[in-house]
Amino acid sequence: MLKPLAFVGPCNSSSISFMIKGNLVAPSYTWYAGTYPTWIHFDSINRLVVTGGGTIDGRGSLWWGNVHKRPSAMNFNNCNGLRISNLRHLNSPRSHVGLSCSKNIEVSDLNMTAPGDSPNTDGIDISNCKKVNIHDSVIATGDDCIAINSGSSDINITGIFCGPGHGISVGSLGVNGDLATVEEVRVKNCTFTNTQNDVRIKTYQNGSGYARKISFMDIHMVASENPIIIDQSYHNGGTNGGKGKSSNKYQNCHLARPKSQTGNGKGVKVSDVRYTRIHGSSASDQAITLNCDADLGCVGIVMDNVNMVSATTGHKVFASCKNAHGSFYDSKVTCLKKYYL
């Protein structure tokens, strides 16, 4: 049994190791998440190692549907050289693991579980992080298996089994008119099963910035409702106080990041996105949705060997493109407009 707590550095030791071997269980009551937005928080601890094979049980069912602002189960802020491995995460009130304002991170061998209808229970949220490697994990939750938020770059994701959930998402970006940037994201060798979405980029219309140099490769999908999505008109009513997923009272970035801007209304530019060897089945007839802004558009979109079939016998799948420009090879995405420099 563990109350909300925070471990805060800096520490004198060159490295700190936490071994979680048993079951950590959250309190049997709710608390004011405005004061404690994370159940277990680590801040400003370099070369931190968290492992041990134990279970982190957030008792999220006490919060879902009853409390407007809910805490994340575990967050790591300003922890450079972080290593997380060999842990089981259950039923977080909100996101299971948050990574913020850190660089040189490796995450592996995690098993995350929450009901498919549990609200905002992302597996891993990344914001303002650089050089992150996430691999060989199973994530089955009620929201994004992995969400890559603003200020993040050089993100590598491989060997993830995702589902149920909302897939692997870049964004949402540009909420409340903010300047948002994400680049150099590589997702490879992942399997999505019975997910609401698979590989998704989502941006708000009134934001600014960019999402660029993103690749999805060797992806297998099983009965996904929306396998491939780019949505530059994303809108979310805000089921957690209307704040972005990276909002955290403890967050104090020491990494260089763009300052917030508001109200320019130009949108977040999406460019240089490549989909390579994407196969599997779609639960909906519209397997590909590229919904891009009329003014910005999406440019440099490449579909290479992208072929899906319907999960329903006798149905055919199709792609829908709006203001999307790029090229396609061995893929049935004829709605994609050829892009000329």
Walk me through what this model shows.
Pfam families: Glyco_hydro_28. It comes from Camelina sativa. The active site is at 166. The chain has 341 residues and is an all-beta fold. Helix content is 0%, strand content 52%. The chain is built from no helices and 25 strands. It has strands spanning 5-8, 16-19, 23-25, 38-43, 48-51, 55-57, 72-77, 83-90, 97-100, 103-113, 124-127, 130-140, 146-148, 152-162, 168-173, 179-193, 197-203, 208-224, 226-231, 269-282, 286-291, 298-310, 318-322, 324-329, 337-338. Strands 2, 3, 5, 6, 8, 10, 12, 14, 16, 18, 20, 22, 24 and 25 form a 14-stranded parallel beta sheet that branches.
In short:
The chain contains no helices and 25 strands. The protein has 341 residues and is mainly beta.
Number of strands: 25
How much of the sequence is in beta strands?
Answer: over 45%
* Biggest sheet architecture: 14 strands, parallel
Shape: globular
- The gyration radius over C-alpha positions equals 19 Å
Low-confidence stretches: 237-250
Order of helices and strands: EEEEEEEEEEEEEEEEEEEEEEEEE
Q: What's the tally of helices?
A: 0
Oligomer: single chain
If you average the pLDDT, what whole number results? 91
Amino- and carboxy-terminal Cα gap: 60 Å
Instruction: Give the % helix.
Output: under 10%
Structural class: mainly beta
